[in-house]
Amino acid sequence: MLNSRPMETPSAADPVERLWKTARYLPQTVRLLGTRYRTLFLAHAQRCRPRGEAGVVADALAFADYLSKQERVGLLEPERNALRRDARALRRRFRLRRDGDAIEAIEKWKIFQWIGI
Questions:
Q1: Which residues span the domain enclosing 68?
Q2: Does 5 reside within a domain?
């Protein structure tokens, strides 16, 4: 039987599910953070609520922003470099939009279609 549900977005009520889905979009960062990834992501997950079709991507972009702006999180230089590379790869295709605690990722090519470029 085929699944007729639309593309799932992570629920704000289940941060562990969000953690694993987001890890696919930040592979180098997750590998280098190791067990700290879970703790850091769960702290981030309390601060935002992803929405839209690309909610998982929005979560990954917001987590990268969260880590890069946290002074108390002591990231080593290889971890910072991995975070920058993963975030840059996502930002090539998506843009993060914030509305209070809600976050949404919008594909850049759709923006250009909307404005007629």
A1: 15-115
A2: no
With a CB cutoff of 8 Å and minimum separation 6, the contacts of 78 are 32
pLDDT in tens, 25-71: 999 999 999 999 999 999 999 999 999 889 999 999 999 999 988 76
pTM across the whole model? 0.80
Q: What total number of domains does the chain contain?
A: 1
* Cα–Cα dist 36/85, whole Å: 19
Enclosing H/E stretch for 3: none
d(CA 57, CA 67): 15
Cβ pair 37, 29 in contact under 8 A:
yes
